[in-house]
Amino acid sequence: VSGLSHYVSAQGREAERLATSNAYIKALSMVSDSEVKAFIIRQLGVTGKDEAIETLVSFLNDKSLSSPAAGALATIHTPASGKALLKALDNSNADETKINIVLSVAKTQMTEAEPALKALLNVDNANLQKVVLYALSQTGTKASLPDLANYAEKAGFTSENTGANEAYIALIKRVLAQGDVKDAQKAADGLIKAAQKAGQRQTREAALEIQITANPGNAVKLLQQALKDPDRDYRNAALRFVSKEARTDIYAELLKSLKTTKPEVKIDIINWLGKECETDPTRRISIQNAGIQPLINELTSADFGVKSAAVETLIKTGDIKAIEPLTALLASDDNQTVLLVRKYLASFNGDICTAVAKMFPSFPDTGKIAGLQLLGERKSVTNLNIVLEQISSNSPSVKETAYNTLKDVVSAKDFATVCNMLEKATPAETVPLQQAVASSLLDYPQDKQLETIYTRMNGINKQYLYYPVLSATGAQQALEFIAERFASETGQGKDIAFQALVNWKGIEAA
Questions:
Q1: 174 shares a domain with 125
Q2: Angle 151-154-157 (CA atoms, 0-180°, nearest 5)?
Q3: SS3 (DSSP) at 273
Q4: How far apart, in whole angstroms, are the C-alpha atoms of residue 505 and residue 485?
Q5: 255 is a domain residue
Q6: Residue finishing a domain among 118, 135, 152
Q7: SUPFAM superfamilies, alphabetically (predicted)?
């Protein structure tokens, strides 16, 4: 039945709709079960128009059916159905049915209901008063602002059972949407002061949002005032509200303010700028255009929270001017700073390798490790020499990182170099060098990889050093060769052949 109601209500089926609506009206006089009647009434809300109003009105004083009947009239939402609801509001004597009518009036959002609703504000029934307050927030005009302000004050400008505070906030927003900007601004100004005095942060936030929406040109001033507030949640709410009005000049003002702002507020601003960069590419460009130098200046902050926020946000700006200042932090003696920068530089979408290579000599051991890792992650083959130099480092950690990085920065032209190193390697150096040899051949087709490896093997005694390299090719021929050597070798050669089979990628070696 519900499907039929929606089908006949589609555009172009007026005759079918009217016939169905009249059938429902007739059916209501033929049934006595309240649940069935309620169901049919709800169908009239879908199919009915003015022809159903009289029938629906007849159920408005029925406690069991007034809710679906009033709801159907609100859904029909024609001038005649609105008038019918208003008339019923005046004529209804029972609070229970009146509540249903008021809620349906609220649903229509018709301003004509305002006088009748205001007349009900002083009722003794708390439930009825609550829905009247809500209905005024949905139908009222600036004329109801003083009334709802009074009830919000009684509620302590906070959320409680009457919903008066929420209703007042909603009405101010409605008045603003109606074009009565000055009245809405005045109400929001008064509310923010009253809420601050009452210690109600969420209400202050709601009032501030209205202020910014009402006067976007004053957004910077309002935000600057809010950023002086000791409540961090309030400051961050203000930043969120300004986001809707964000422009290059607003970003520039906030960046400029960093110079004289307290660390905790700096963190809020900088983190917000980072979120703005992620929200929309045009905002990210606007922040770049506003100038990132104030953010760069914060990289030397003594407050690690500020420094951390600046690093993360500079990465999010995507501005290449941030690369060198960020990379320079890898020269810091503070390990926490080095690890922080290493983490975020890795995600920067731009050429970081040039700056890393340029500044590498100035890095302490922790910075060198980070720099090597970054060069490896970016497959920076042009900086192989830096990696090779660090293999001779006096720092065991730097040396180990250099060996592990080799596989990521070698190419075919380096095959002989890494082979020479492998053939002279200590046991601890062998595995990363085998990986480097295998990586240097990745650009070759499989058959050329095999040919190159076999040629090299034939010239040395410790051929077993290249079993893992053969395994990395994934070639069936290599698998058979290693299996034969496993069967015939003894000692170290047999062990390495076994490990090469264990590491084989695929089920062929099983």
A1: no
A2: 85
A3: helix
A4: 18
A5: no
A6: 135
A7: ARM repeat
pLDDT for position 11: 86
Q: Using an 8 Å Cβ cutoff, are 390 and 402 in contact? A: yes
Q: How far apart are CA 341 and CA 319, in angstroms?
A: 15
What is the amino acid identity at position 210? I
Looking at the fold, whether 109 and 185 belong to one and the same domain comes out as: no
Instruction: Say if residues 185 and 175 touch (Cβ distance below 8 Å).
Output: no
Q: Does residue 129 share a domain with residue 112?
A: yes
91 token code pair: 């004529």
Say whether both 123 and 174 belong to one domain: no
**Where are the alpha helices (H) located in 48-180, listed in sequence order?**
53-57, 66-76, 79-91, 95-108, 114-118, 126-139, 145-154, 164-177
Beta carbons within 10 angstroms of residue 389's beta carbon = 12
333-378 pLDDT, tens digit each: 999 999 999 999 999 999 999 999 999 999 999 999 999 999 999 9
The verdict on residue 248 lying in a domain is no
Which stretches of the chain score pLDDT less than 70?
506-510
Whether residues 487 and 464 share a domain: the answer is yes
Residues 2 and 126 in one domain: yes
For 411-442, write each residue's pLDDT tens digit.
999 999 999 999 999 999 999 999 999 999 99
From CA 168, how far away is CA 191, in angstroms rounded? 9
**Of 88, 119, 135, at which residue does a domain stop?**
135
Joined together, the tokens standing for residue 24 give 């429902």
**Pseudo-torsion of CA 439, 441, 444, 449, nearest 10°?**
-120
Is residue 457 a part of any domain in this protein? Answer: yes
Q: What local confidence, expressed as pLDDT, does residue 510 receive?
A: 53
Q: 161: domain range? A: 141-214
Query: For residue 115, what are the contacts with CB-CB under 8 A and spacing of at least 6?
Result: none
Q: Are 347 and 358 in contact (CB under 8 A)?
A: no
Does residue 125 sit in the same domain as residue 204? no
Q: Are residues 46 and 131 in the same domain?
A: yes
| Residue whose tokens read 């007739």 | 26
CA dihedral angle for residue 208, residue 210, residue 215, residue 220, rounded to 10 degrees: 30
3-state DSSP percent of the chain in helix, strand and coil, to 5: 75, 0, 25
Tokens of residue 349, six digits: 């979408």
Residue 477 lies in a domain: yes
- Structural domains in the chain (count): 3
What CATH number corresponds to the domain at position 21?
1.25.10.10
Separation of alpha carbons 73 and 5, rounded Å: 16
Q: Within its chain, how far is the Cα of 132 from the centroid? A: 37
